Amino acid sequence: MNPFRYERANDAAGAVAAHGAAAAAAYLGGGTNLVDLMKLRVARPETLVDVARLAHDRIDVLPSGGVRIGAAVKNSVLAADRTIRSQYPMLSGALLSGASGQLRNLATTGGNLLQRTRCTYFADVSKPCNKRDPGSGCPARTGYHRTLGIFGISESCIATHPSDMAVALAALDAIVRVRGASGEREIPLGDFYRLPGTEPQYDTVLEPADLIVAVDLPPNGFARSSLYRKARDRASYAFALVSVAAALEIEDGRVREVRLALGGVAPKPWRATAAEAALRGKPATEASFLEAAEAELAHARPLPDNAFKIALARNMIVRALCDLAEAA
Amino acid sequence: MSVVERALGAGLERIDGPLKVTGAARYAYEYPAENVAYGYLIGSTIAKGRIASVDSSAARALPGVIDIVTHESAPRLADVSDAALAVLQSADVAYHGQIVGIVVAQTLEISRHAASLCVFTYAEEKHDVELRVDRPDLYKPDKVNPDFPTDSAQGNFERAFASAAHAIDVTYTTPHEHNNPLEPHATLAAWEDDGAGVTLYDANQGPHGIRDDVAKAFGLAAERVRIIAPYVGGGFGSKAFTHPHVIATAMAAKVAARPVKIALTRQQMFALVGHRTPTIQRLRLAADRAGNLSAIGHDVVEATSTIEEFAEQTAVATRMMYTAPNRRTTHRLARLDVPSPSIMRAPGEAPGMFALESAIDEIAEACGIDPVEFRIRNEPALDPESGLPFSSRNLVACLRRGAERFGWTAREPGARGRTPGRRRAGYGVAASTYPARTRPSTARIELDEAGGYRVLLDASDIGTGAWTALWQLSAEALGVSLERVHVEIGDSALPKAPGAGGSMGLSSWGSAIYDAAQKLRAELERHGGRVPSTGLRVEGSVDGNVQAKDFARHAFGAQFAEVSVDLDTGEVRVPRLCGVFAAGRIVNPRTARSQLLGGMTMGLSMALHEETVLDARFGHFANHDFAEYHIAVNADVGEIDVAWIDEVDVHVNPFGAKGVGEIGIVGTAAAIANAVYDATGIRIRDLPIRPEKLLV
Predict the structure, then answer these.
(1) Would you call B569 and A234 a contact, using CB atoms and an 8 Å cutoff?
(2) End-to-end CA distance of chain A, in Å?
(3) Which residues in chain B have their CB less than 8 angstroms from residue A126's CB?
(4) Is residue B443 domain-shared with residue B432, that is, in the same domain?
(5) For residues B689 and B610, is the Cβ–Cβ distance under 8 A?
(6) What pLDDT digit, counting tens, does each position of B161-206 carry?
């Protein structure tokens, strides 16, 4: 770990100003990922601006019927919130499937969105990694990549985004509220993350001093017909091999609305838009679900050791939708 | 000598429990030392070659840095015959992560930061880390760990195998696995002012062994080296032998002329403290129509390193498990540019019995015989290879008792695989075994005038419950109540005893204590039952495997597993495990149960989770942390039913106990793999059983 300065901001504007004024600054939320990366020297901020104690720790129902989640709300608090559990069970389920109780007690909503990939080469400064050290190469592509991406990857990077929470937020069409040097703005979650292309070092569209202040959920949380499922190497405390956030609304035996997002398969929470498009208006049957899954997975570009994710994602999508249809 | 309680067999709570849960029990890194400095190790980033240059100028300029030791500046060790411990004695690099530098600083943070500022350049050579069965350079070691013959052969295996009614010829593989005790390896070294002696607070499984290695490396008289380790946070074999960080810490303290502490990071533990070798195991079993085994062949290919030979005894258990007139076992090694493999909980038996007990399931099915009955049918009357009688062998009783407890008879082979729904349940069984050995040990007992007994020996408790079990054994041997007995262990200044390993601790230490107790009782009698004012003091000992020539001595067990496989995801859950063991007398049912439960949990972890991934291009273990090296968590562990049968084996030691440290992990992985086969019809022959192997 390199030496660093520690600053604590009183409000969002102060945090953004402090970040902007310092060279190589980073915001510190729960620190559950950043501090590890600092120990490993993957992250080497010279200044930490602590935003975990800012006032963004509320969960408010908006006049529209949606919900605003403060960026400093802890994962465990969010998962246990009565409104979230009843109106957005998919989000609560996603949160509870991630990390451990101790980590969720520390991790914040904003920090969760900004987790870095768990690719082992990214975390090892003695090895090349285009995300950490642009231009150094990607050893994962021909090395250990069993857990890495099949969608949205590039020649330079095949990392996956580790968050479960973000997968549910992607399915829910959440909006990320960001405060930057020139004030506050909204970024739909679908536009929040970047694909690696030739610049995998940038995970999101955020500018350096941008601070996430809240995440807004639209009114429809698909409370009656949604779920989050996660396949992993052990029953708890493991990142997703593949996860599925799914919501389904059926009218007269046909799919009126469907939301489908996948985790563990791409550099960002992967909204399965091809599958959704293939399903809307179709009969809510296993055959349609399978067809939709295959429409999405036709775009996958697997590597030898993660090709199993195609069958896994297909099975999980079909099963999730079948179960939702059956419950409807 | 008034009240005599029956201490042996009582399920006492651990006497060290309150100390541990309150934090009062000190672990190696926690000992205070005046003027202590903090070390941090620098590991090589290549797997083979030479250090071409070192630039530590930026690190040295950092305030708080006391010294940086590299091969250029390190003091010469007095003895470098053990290449693995020849820390910083040359520019050569033999594996990725090998110690190439030690930073000593006033704080851990400064030390770690300074380490990152040291620039090493290397003249890299092509390394070779891949274990394959077709390597032309496989060789036959002189023996396998610790002293078994490398190969064995009886009858005419090839002919019997070729002419059998039923035969299977299958290959099983097990991956690299790492011991990963919760407490990282840590050492605090403090030299005496004259430099002729050193004290190490060190996380290890046996202070005397560490003492001898440190004395040899630094050219010291053994009695001037003291190793203190009363409480150790797990070892699983990785703290049994001296590893390079111990030498590095003593060296750093010598150079800095002040006490130095070093703890390994989790990542460093993957390179520096041993691991389980990967294995490739060919199993050939043949049987007649009635299900009698006619031929058993077990041929193992595994890895060792270039700097040290470790030959795991993978096929040794196969030599005594089942009867068959024609048999062969072999072990062949590849010498690779990797950190040295070493012992990991039940080295040999754990991977070897995964293969054998899976293969038994396969041949039983080929013969159309229930796998419990198949094992019973092939139960030997005498040790098949030595011809010796077993001191006790209750495998059949374990199988029958286990089948009853588990509800094995309710099993309908293959039926579960046809159950409706998206999950499939299956049952599996496997046998367990582990040798019951004794190593030379000594112990001292002192009796004071007030009637208090002090039992002193350098035994180790690495979380097993040895503190408590030895207390009970001592009271039993002395025929006095527990309150009058005080035990001291975990210090090389105490009478010499072997470390905790090979499930030999209790037998070895207990035998020495029994011998001392007998002498003390005789001595007391000589004094007319009165303790002289100077007290009494006796030394006891045991020679080791004194009866090995007369008996084959092993513990046995049977493990049953129920699995539930998600057909969509390939995820395997284990709602139930049942283990029934015959391990001689159980000294403390509470701590013994914990040992067996822990072993079975580790076996479950081996079956489903554990695998270290060696990246052949860099020669490093890519998944070297707990986020990526998966160990079973609580949610993976369902109901575990642990039981044992009453067995007192008078041939193993005076108290008839066989040791339960390792047998619990033996067989679990096979029972689970066999259950997965029962559930899915998919035979997994390479561990771990990952979801992708079951996705269709």
Answers:
(1) no
(2) 52
(3) 45, 620
(4) no
(5) no
(6) 999 999 999 999 999 999 999 999 999 999 999 999 999 999 999 9
> Is A320 at the interface with chain B, CB within 8 A?
no
- The predicted-structure confidence for B581-633, as pLDDT tens digits, reads as follows 999 999 999 999 999 999 999 999 999 999 999 999 999 999 999 999 999 99
Q: Is residue B255 part of a domain?
A: yes
Return the SS3 of B604.
helix
Structure tokens at A111: 């920090």
C-beta separation of B116 from B107 below 8 A: no
Contacts of A234 in chain B (CB under 8 A): 608-609, 630, 632-633, 635-636
Length of chain B, in residues: 696
* pTM attached to this predicted model: 0.97
Could you tell me if B62 lies within 8 Å of chain A, comparing CB atoms? no
Partners of residue A239 in chain B, C-beta under 8 Å: 627
Reference B25, options B227, B228, B180, B191; nearest CA is B228
Half-sphere exposure (Cβ direction) of B537: Cα atoms closer than 13 Å = 5
User: B65, B141 in Cβ contact below 8 A?
Assistant: no
Give the chain B residue whose CA is nearest to the CA of A143. B615
Mutate which: A40, A97, A315, A316, vs B, most B CBs within 10 A = A315
Q: Are residues B381 and B356 in the same domain?
A: yes
CATH at B299: 3.30.365.10
Considering its fold, how many domains does chain B have in total?
3
- The alpha carbon of B339 is separated from its chain's Cα centroid by a whole number of angstroms, namely 17
**Residue type at position B328:** R
Judging contacts by C-beta atoms under 8 Å, the chain B residues touching residue A236 are 633-636
Residues of B noted as catalytic: 662
Residues in chain A: 328
Chain A contact for B3 (CB, 8 A cutoff): no
Residue-number span of the structural domain to which B453 is assigned? 438-542
**Which domain-ending residue is among B526, B542, B558?**
B542
Instruction: Identify the burial level of B691 via C-beta atoms within 10 angstroms of its C-beta, where 0-12 means exposed, 13-18 middle and 19 or more buried.
Output: buried
Interface contact flag, A308 B692, Cβ < 8 Å: yes
Q: Is A233 on the interface with B (CB under 8 A)?
A: yes
Residue closest to A78 by CA, chosen among A215, A275, A271? A215
Query: B314 and B243, same structural domain?
Result: no
Please check whether residues B160 and B195 belong to one and the same domain.
Answer: no
Domains and CATH numbers, chain A: 5-50 (3.30.43.10), 228-327 (3.30.390.50)
Q: Say if B6 falls within a structural domain.
A: no
pLDDT per position as a tens digit, A239-281: 999 999 999 999 999 999 999 999 999 999 999 999 999 999 9
Q: Are residues B147 and B194 both part of a single domain?
A: no
Name residues whose C-beta falls within 8 Å of residue B518's C-beta, 6 or more positions apart in sequence.
Answer: B477, B540
Give the gyration radius of chain A's Cα atoms.
Answer: 19
Distance CA A202, CA A207 (A): 10
Residue with tokens 């030739």: A198
Size of interface A-B (CB pairs under 8 A): 90
- Which of B256, B272, B288 is the last residue in one of the domains? B272
**Claim to verify: residue B379 and residue B458 sit in the same structural domain:** no
ipTM for this model: 0.97
Residue B40, in any domain of the structure: yes
Same domain membership, residue B429 and residue B563: yes
Task: For residue A292, give both structure tokens.
Answer: 């939709």
The answer to whether residue B589 is domain-embedded is yes
Q: Is B635 helix (H, G, I), strand (E, B) or coil?
A: helix
d(CA A180, CA A182): 5
Cα–Cα nearest to A148, from A139, A159, A137, A162: A159
Kindly write down the DSSP assignment for every residue of B123-158, as one continuous string.
EE--------TT-TT-B--SEETTTEES-EEES-HH
